[in-house]
Queue: 2 jobs
Job 1
Amino acid sequence: MVKICCIGAGYVGGPTMAVIALKCPDIEVAVVDISVPRISAWNSDTLPIYEPGLDDVVKQRRGKNLFFSTDVEKHVMEADIVFVSVNTPTKTQGLGAGKAADLTYWESAARMIADVSKSDKIVVEKSTVPVKTAEAIEKILTHNSKGINFQILSNPEFLAEGTAIQDLFNPDRVLIGGRETPAGEKAIQELKKVYARWVPEEQIICSNLWSAELSKLAANAFLAQRISSVNAMSALCEATGADVTQVSHAVGKDTRIGPKFLNASVGFGGSCFQKDILNLVYICECNGLPEVANYWKQVIKINDYQKSRFVNRVVSSMFNTVSGKKIAILGFAFKKDTGDTRETPAIDVCKGLLGDKARLSIYDPQVNEEQIQRDLAMKKFDWDHPIHLQPLSPTAVKQVSVVWDAYAATKDAHGICILTEWDEFKSLDYKKIYDQMQKPAFVFDGRNVVDAEKLRQIGFIVYSIGKPLDDWLKDMPAIA
Ligand code: UDX
Ligand code: ADP
């Protein structure tokens, strides 16, 4: 029986391995992690991550051919294929600080693999990493190999959170990079056989190691660039009276451009986009390509601009001050259908409003108070370390309360900011909400989920990203 072990039971490792176990009942899959609470949660009824459809897949295979364990060394030793899906934070100190990936966790995983292995193994890079990481890992493994043969593959994951299970069931493509040697080719074929159980062969792309690594960074950079492009347009739409939804629709009808990923928003978030672009920027700089580096940097700059523009809209609309005012924050996760808050635009928007002394009442259907408080107190880039290495529960931000209901969040509020596009925010009873708010009552829709006209009829002053401005906002400055 082929044995697979995955180091790192996070948003990538957990769902990916659960689907491999479901599709390959004859393969034994062990997901291991150094975090005891995380593994306990994977073994309980409340999984550590919220992902539609995941519970069902885990329940079907757990205890049969899917195991979650903290016994990292034992499972690595027994495995034929070892996936590595550990944290790769952005460095905060030293060479490349603020840009380069910190490969500490990857390196320690590689050294451990070399240490405990007694048989040949295929080691698969699954975390997003800078180009040429595989080469570095290969060096660590071969220099410590004690005669064991390690083949390194890069098999980047393209799943998006909230749709992870569907993305894994029907991926647009699976990418496997490896060495262009007979042993490398053989390893690629071994991994290909696993995916070929459910992915059509023509969708499994094989390439060299560096192409695979760079393709992942490039794909995320292109996606993020689309959002920054439409968000840049949203500012121009507000200035000129055009409607960004109509512009996106018209632009997306061009089959060369396509309709997906053109929703203007308060900004993109998530664990990948910013980190991957920073990585790309760093690689370009290291390779003497400052023009290319600056081109990609601009994608992040527009994203930051969009978040501060939003905060400025809120503050300037409310008589240039939110000091002491209650602002309801609806949605904190970086997108709907996930409880993940990594790099969520809500963090910067909330910090911006707190900087202007607002009182915040936050509601998100999937994010709890501890997480929100931790996020608001955390330093940039600290989020991407294993939980036991993150700063202990910081002192709670006093001006923030977290509630479990949109009506409680909005009671007596002066304004509402919608920061995640949860479906339930579309069908709230906005008349009821209006009646219990301070007047004038404001809605700032950072995801274009509400029907602005209907809300205006109720009496709200409404700001929607990239839409023609309410008369109230027309003469107010919102330049970031
Ligand atoms: C992304 C990539 O899509 C995925 O392929 C990769 O493996 C990991 O990074 P993820 O971060 O989970 O996935 O979510 P995604 O759906 O890409 O959304 C990222 C951010 O962009 C979210 O904050 C989302 O709200 C925002 N977004 C997305 C927009 O603002 N507008 C859009 O049109 C689409
Ligand atoms: P991703 O979104 O890429 O899946 P996560 O941060 O959710 O990333 O998961 C990474 C996981 O890797 C964490 O649960 C962390 O505890 C685990 N991890 C980090 N280093 C090691 C290691 N050396 N051995 C085992 N697990 C590790």
Job 2
Amino acid sequence: MKEMILILDFGGQYNQLIARRIRENNVYCEIHNYNEKVFELIKEKSPHGIILTGGPQSVYDDQSIQCDKKLFSLGIPILGICYGAQAMAYSLGGRVEMAGVGEYGKADLTLLADSKLFHGIKRNSVVWMSHSDKITMAPDNFKATAATKDCQIAAFEKAGKNLYAVQFHPEVVHTVEGKKILSNFVDICKCSRDWKMDSFIEETVAQLKNKIGDKKALCALSGGVDSSVASVLLSKAIGKNLTCVFVDHGLLRKNEADEVENIFKHYDLNFIRVNAGERFLNALEGVTDPERKRKIIGEEFIRVFESEAKKIGAVDFLVQGTIYPDVIESGLGKSAVIKSHHNVGGLPDYVDFKEIVEPLRLLFKDEVREVGRQLGLPENLISRQPFPGPGLGIRIIGEVTAEKIKIVQEADFIYRSEIAKAQIENLGQYFAALTNMKSVGVMGDGRTYDYAIALRAVMTSDFMTAEAAPIPFEILNKVANRIVNEVKGVNRVLYDCTSKPPATIEFE
Ligand code: XMP
């Protein structure tokens, strides 16, 4: 049985972060909704510890999820966070009150007593609060261990039973000692901190062998890190019974299709590259609406993939590079709308596969990257920035034409190589887009009337919000000079200084 911490979700906005922080301690964890099947789940998972997350409700709401008090007598260490702390207090007979004023943002925490949870932590530190109800009395035989100005019981515990609770959010970076607090909880759970990627590879390959046996599997390979890592894992497990289909829709970055092919040529797997650029261009002819473009690209993609699957025949398994944030966002009921809008076509409904295999569904992006490294994938593929499924189709504003694709590919290539040369770090994503604007310029002694390229670079950790990156002006200037000199059809280069929101990262 794998050593793990179970995170029981009450709908908190930071639950992914809690899981991240636990895994940073080399401890495996999973997030599951708290519901009536909780005891079955605990039996199945045998966790070393349980974390109860925050959530938007009040223990007094009719609809609120209450904690069964039996949970606290299982002998498993428990940490309640925010709503999780209130639910713990309430179910064990403490007092939770609707607060007149909520406490949101940073607060100064003072420790009141020694606690294993706060071992090695300064007596005063800043924590992140986000709650309206508050705990005004800890349950019997529990002691308050920390307070803020507005929250007399900011932490409480019954150390003898390994029950701990904090009103603040240790998983958020603004809680200065948060990492240490969660690491202390990992110690309280007596976890051996041995969750590593090499053990993940071994275990997963064995499971895949077992599951797929000598049947065939098909993978839609985009050249992005997730589907690449999924493919290589699968090929380790089933060798030539895996076929990877790489659809080159003609909307990739300069040289990208060849780069992907070159990488996968060296693996012992069946790799099929379908050059479908013309087909996509035809389908996009005359289309200017961004959502329509997305839909067309998604649909064409599926059709190409389907026809390849038919050619291979008798394929039982479809491999997808789904990762944990996708599972959490769609499975636990949040952010799903934004995601499905972004995904290019859901493959499984269209093709007759018996089962979908998602070997990375419990990993975060950085863990997937680590697996990729251990599998020997090249660093330029592993640390690649995200690239949208519809590709340059949504970086060309208005109608997509062969000429415009060429322009944006060349401009983007120059921009990316200058950024690489300048070794600018911390960029979440950066690219060139082709505006639909033509303007007047002068080159040599002649008038030009050409397109403007827009450069974008953002800093972001979650891609839901982003800040425009302050690229040094000399670099922007150099990129602009190179683009107008080297790319035919462009006479102006603009830099996008807008954050998200109100803009988005992509232009369409
Ligand atoms: P936005 O433009 O919404 O993008 O700020 C956020 C992140 O999602 C990527 N993106 C997409 N990815 N299909 C995808 O696979 C899409 O249709 C799509 N649209 C945006 C974008 O590149 C950024 O990383």
